[in-house]
Give the backbone structure.
Amino acid sequence: MPHHHGATGSWGMSVLFTLVFVFVALAYLRGWMRLRSSDARVSSARAASFLGGLLLIWGALASPMAALDHELLTFHMIQHLLLMTLAPPLIWLGEPVLAFSLGLSRRVAAASLLPRPQMPRLARALTQPAFALGAASAALVVGHIPGVFALGMEFGSWHMVEQATFLTTGLQFWWPVVQPWPAVPQPELSLILYLFFATLPCDILSGFLVFCDRVVYRNYFSSSHLFGFSALGDQQCAAALMWTCVTIVYLVAGALLAMHLLSPQWAAAGRLAGSGRHTQTTNLIQQKVGGI
């Protein structure tokens, strides 16, 4: 049977998601506390970044706002922005792989350090900029095809698959930009083009929805029209929000990259420090795991 109210908006799912987020936060903090005195990459700012990203994901999936995505397209779009654009860079800036390597049990932490030749190759392939950009763009475009969108509105399980896809491809997209451990930071000018090309699918989609004179997603014809929005006005507001948010976030990220890359001192120091810190951090984790 179709579900006209998203599964993630139900009370039971909200409680389940909240418990999962609490567990993830505690595991992260356990690892952060073990490393904070030994490695500057797990500073208080890093922890705040990760927890902030986790809070945004909770807001999209388990907060009262999650139940409103079937009422207004604007709230639905806010969910997408939180999952794809805002939370992922905050998560990676928090160095979660580094923290979780020590935040879990000794057995799990030690297992994470075992050599697995196939895994690094797979990880590198999935986070190659061209592949990551293609995956994120495909998720955005396919997820907003009216027929696919309607499935997510009608069936709670499909809605969760859609949200998981947005979050996964969002994390995948932002990995080459942030380059958290265990990646070795390699700043490149091509990343600015990467961010520029990433705005194009959003620009096309949001531009179409803003200037379209009909309601594209008919599920919202029967919505309660909160805050006095008409269905068309809601569509235009949602599209304008996506257009503005994506443009600002990518512009800020590109500007920060450009500032670093155009500084010769930073570029030279960054490459040396990145490679050295990668080895130093790996050795540090191995020492800490032995002492858990």
